[in-house]
């Protein structure tokens, strides 16, 4: 929360690149290695004209090489044995979330390649975290980061190339509930490379230009621990709202392209005051691609332990593909009279997006309502709504008390498993 607005109005800035997630507005698109940064600024008021939003501005600047070779390293270790336990004796057997251990280590080095002309800097860091949740399942997360930067001076040009690779690898990530069964949890992977090039040009003593462009791939995958192959079944429990056995697979692509051209002109004496003119344009193009694959069948139980089934669901893939575009132009005059400073600013922004057409494979199931009269008589009882499945090939769903039912051979028994829509 900043100046009365929430996270969707926040903007992140990494080495002049805007990596703010435009799908999950205002969110950081990756985990950061904070030992890699020379400077971190958090601004909550009087935001610069180059900022797209009015919320909190987080600016991250990594270290860079110089004419002196230098570096550093770190190693931190935390373990649950180092922590005090103040859990009341009455609750000791109830279970609790806790951190088992944390490793945090990294190294960085920078220096000259050609003195006064070309410099390098690189760093690597990882956070390795193990925690135990309420279901007594270990969630293991690794957050590696690699950074590399080149800086060069060529006449009036100051060139910079920057590369950052981050990942979020997590085993047994919670998918639906903090007490989901092991098979219904996720194994997560999310490699996120960022490339940026920039040219800063000193046109004259009072004029400066900057041109930069970047590409960032912020995708990630969520794969269920349980199998999603033929015959896979996803169980859910109404009594505890817990998922079991398996769940769904999700793939996300949130690639971004960003470009900006910025200029500054300095006029020391103009109309009796000093002026700093800032102007520029920028463009950002973001992907919003999601692919979801479900288990073949979902069985919803009143109580999973008793295997009393209420409904059977059949899903098909749920995909989406859309783009988000953003264009901005700005102009600012910073007027310094000696006694006070006046900022006169004007900014124009336009956002637009569109969905691409997709083809999603269907299921081999066709639905047709039956017993409509009975349905109308029992509209106040949702559990009495019955549908009959007609399908090209047999599908087997377990029904309590009858073993396995083949719908083609025993439609009456299959009717009792209460299949319903979920397409």
- Could you spell the SSE succession in H and E letters? EEEEEEEEEEEEEEEEEEEEEEEHEEEH
**Terminal Cα separation, in Å?**
39 Å
Major beta-sheet overview: 10 strands, antiparallel, barrel
What is the average per-residue confidence, as pLDDT, rounded to a whole number?
Answer: 80
Uncertain residue ranges: 367-423
Count of helix runs: 2
Give the overall silhouette. globular
Fraction of residues in β-strands? over 45%
The secondary-structure class comes to: mainly beta
Radius of gyration: 29 Å
Number of strands: 26
- Biggest sheet strand line-up: 7-8-11-12-17-18-16-13-10-9
Q: What is the share of helical residues?
A: under 10%
What does this structure look like?
This protein has helices at residues 372-377, 411-415; strands spanning 11-14, 37-43, 57-62, 70-79, 98-114, 118-132, 138-154, 157-166, 169-173, 186-189, 192-204, 207-216, 220-224, 233-237, 242-244, 248-253, 256-270, 273-294, 297-303, 308-313, 318-336, 341-355, 365-369, 387-391, 396-399, 403-406. The chain has 423 residues and is mainly β. Strand 7 and strand 8 form a beta hairpin. The protein is globular. The model is unreliable at 367-423 (pLDDT under 50).
